[in-house]
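Folds abound. Consider this:
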Amino acid sequence: MEDNRSKYNFALLNANQVVIMSFFLLSSIGKKVAMSLSAFFLISFLLLHVAINFLSVVSGTMYNEASHFMGTNPIIQFVMQPILILGVLFHFTMGFVLEYQNRRARPLKYAMKNDQRNSSWLSRNMIISGLVILAFLGLHFYDFWLPEMRYKYIEFKPPNEHRYFSELVHKFEDPLRVGFYTLSFILLMLHLLHGFQSAFQSLGINNKFTPTIKKTAWTFSVVVPMTFVFIALFHHLKH
């Protein structure tokens, strides 16, 4: 009898926690917190991605080895990659939902009069930079991810650890593609300049470390996208 009562209380406690969490995630604050956490997850991916891509500037062999490892490691392919795709979709969906709710919550006249006084250009145009970045991700998937999936799972070609560098260089021969990549990374920089600091604020991190956080966020937001731009221009001009 005592065991049944304990199980009932435990199940009731879990149900209450699920309800509370559901209400929290449905609230505006909950959505902002969830979006901030997804932003930090994507930021960590950006850091890894730029590090691997920069190897292509240093050594084609090192880039091939790193890309081959990322492309054949089962944990990365079947665990981390789906999580990454879901993280991207979740982050952009939350962004669109919050933008829609913010626009509905304030009258048009009030928004037009107060937006420019109470917010920066970056914060007012996050949705625009986000849409361009989303379009870039579509092109990036088309350029690299889809050919990789076709190579491995449709054509069933044998592993070739020497192909990645030449494929990368070939993509950056087209000046229009390089131009769009450059524009997208500049907008990514602007997106991060506001979004990085905003993510900390949404999580309530506002203390004596705030100046350091702002400097770190600014450095990351500028250096990482500009490194991507440098990589694209380097291969376009060199090859």
Observations:
- The longest helix spans residues 74-105.
- The chain has ten helices and no strands.
